[in-house]
Specification:
heterodimer, A: about 270 residues, mainly alpha, two-stranded antiparallel sheet, two-stranded antiparallel ribbon, 8 helices, about 50% helix, B: about 250 residues, alpha+beta, Ubiquitin-like (UB roll), Fumarate Reductase Iron-sulfur Protein, Chain B, domain 2, 2 domains, five-stranded mixed beta sheet, 7 strands, about 35% helix, about 15% strand, elongated
């Protein structure tokens, strides 16, 4: 029983879980649907092991970067192929787990899924359904404190994504090419960098941990920039989910031959 | 221009109580506290309510209006439809004394548990010198009016009375963050934030930020930075290795 409706603590005796009259249930419902749909799509694509690369234009989907499985097309395997080609191992085995953990421990997503999936709380001033709450004080949720290490990994993976975006301008015959796919891939990489740079851990590392900004003027300026980006962290979190899915879906469609890439140059 | 509005006000004490219906006249430009005062003057002379400044600066008139923790003096009646029932209850996290007045002693206890500002050795009062950019970050936290809406809405204690002993709540974790960021504070507050004040109970669902009448970004600017400072201290393997190797 929630203490909100428990009369034992001398609180006002109100039996209702909440007296809110607005649609407080809508944001958690939308988050549940949005995050659930994305996780479903990403899981299917990560294990599909097909339609992840367009050899002609060097388009590689971020869900398969870096492609390190023995099953990868050689042209797409920039870091070599060393992971067994079995159905239960994603081709991007060395990046996907870190990206998943980076998002899972992200301060914004934590808010979103604690509310939407665990109801802790479902919304402000709405009693949660759980009888006990220890927050992030003990295992496993105390591991949320490892967010910054997944941030370091995500920053390294963003460098790989940037490399993928650059070499996608070079076609398989070595000539320069520009298509709609390039624009989508570059937009995705820009958003990924913005999301990574807006991370709360990044804000702390850059300057938040300092007590004397006056002694570190460059870090102070960088902290100010990251602080501005950090204010848009939620929007960037959703924008990158969308851009990742759009980029992957576009490359899948071109790779499968369902559509042809809209070419601007070459 | 005035109209009649349907109010429901919780009346009672810690042993019993219920919502009581009142039809009440509302004039243009009024706030919920005005209506509560009108009820006191007309239909409910013994209605208890705590208030003081009527300007959103004293933090006294914290109540819950249609289930949302708010200041009664800053909630305009024009934000409700004419036919909308307005329900006013006391804060639901603290023991009720009577009607809309609660006992907020929990917050005073937690305030006393936070060690005061500790200047460095050899620096006497009057000799404190700081750069503006070093203190302006924590000046945001000084806007707090101690209304306790954040303490009231935090589900860690609102829904779990048993956590009150271990968790100081957002207002006092913000105070710890303010002192930890202070350029002249010499006390070490990182371990204490987690071990003594329950920083880990915060699951950053941001309700404290949503209800703050001063619009202080409690979660983003105080609680998360404090969590990150604790990570620096307790969970950073590079720092841990350095401490082991160099016995710092």
């Amino acid at each position: 029983m929630s203490s909100t409706t428990d009369m034992g603590a001398g609180r006002a005796q109100i039996a209702a879980r909440t007296l809110r009259t607005d649609r407080w249930w809508l944001p958690p419902l939308l988050n549940f649907a949005g995050l659930g749909a994305w996780v479903l799509y990403a899981t299917v694509r990560a294990f599909m092991q097909n339609w992840y690369f367009v050899p002609e234009y060097n388009y590689l989907t971020p869900f398969y970067s870096p492609c390190v499985s023995n099953g990868c097309v050689e042209q797409a395997a920039h870091l070599g192929r060393f992971v067994p080609d079995v159905w239960f191992l994603p081709y991007a085995l060395i990046s996907l787990p870190f990206l998943l953990l980076f998002r899972l421990t992200c301060y914004y997503y934590r808010k979103a899924y604690y509310r939407a999936f665990w109801g802790s709380p479902p919304a402000c001033a709405v009693a949660e359904p759980h009888g006990k709450y220890t927050g992030e004080t003990r295992f496993p949720l105390i591991l949320q404190n490892l967010h910054r290490y997944f941030y370091y990994a995500a920053a390294l993976i963003s460098i790989l994504n940037t490399y993928d975006a650059v070499i996608a301008f070079i076609k398989s015959d070595g000539s320069f090419g520009l298509g709609l796919g390039n624009i989508i891939i570059v937009a995705n990489v820009v958003l990924l960098w913005a999301y990574t740079a807006s991370c709360h851990s990044c804000r702390s590392i850059i300057g938040g941990r300092l007590n004397h900004f006056s002694k570190h003027p460059l870090r102070y300026r960088a902290w100010g920039f990251v602080t501005k980006l950090n204010g848009k962290h939620m929007q960037l979190a959703w924008a990158t989910l969308a851009s990742l899915a759009i980029t992957d879906a576009y490359i899948m469609c071109v790779s499968a031959g369902w559509i042809s890439d809209l070419r601007i140059v070459g | 221009m005035s109209h009649w509005h349907h109010f429901r006000v919780w009346r009672g004490d810690s042993s019993e109580g219920d919502l009581v219906d009142y039809p009440v006249e509302v004039n243009e430009g009024e706030v919920v506290l005005d209506i509560i005062h009108r009820l006191q003057q007309t239909e409910a002379n013994d209605l208890a309510v705590r208030w003081n400044c009527k300007a959103g600066k004293c933090g006294s008139c914290s109540v819950e209006i249609n289930g949302k923790p708010r200041l009664a003096c800053m909630t305009r009646m024009s934000t409700f439809a004419d036919d909308e029932v307005v329900t006013v209850t006391p804060l639901r996290t603290f023991p009720v004394i009577r009607d809309l007045v609660t006992d907020v002693e929990f917050n005073y206890v937690k305030a006393r548990e936070v060690p005061a500002f500790a200047p460095p050795e050899g620096v006497a009062p009057g000799e404190y010198r700081m750069q503006q950019i070093d203190v302006e970050r924590s000046q945001e936290f000084r806007k707090c009016i101690e209304c306790y809406l954040c303490q009231n809405t935090c589900h860690a204690v609102r829904d779990h009375e048993e956590n009150k002993a271990a968790f100081s709540g957002p207002r006092y974790l913000m105070r710890i963050a303010e002192l930890d960021m202070h350029p002249l504070d010499a006390a070490d507050r990182k371990d204490s934030a987690q071990d003594d004040h329950g920083l880990g109970y915060c699951n950053i669902t941001k309700c404290c930020t949503e209800v703050c009448p001063e619009h202080i970004k409690i979660t983003d600017n105080a609680l998360i930075p404090m969590k990150e400072r604790v990570v620096d201290r307790k969970y950073d393997p590079i720092v841990w290795l350095g401490n082991k190797l160099f016995r710092r």
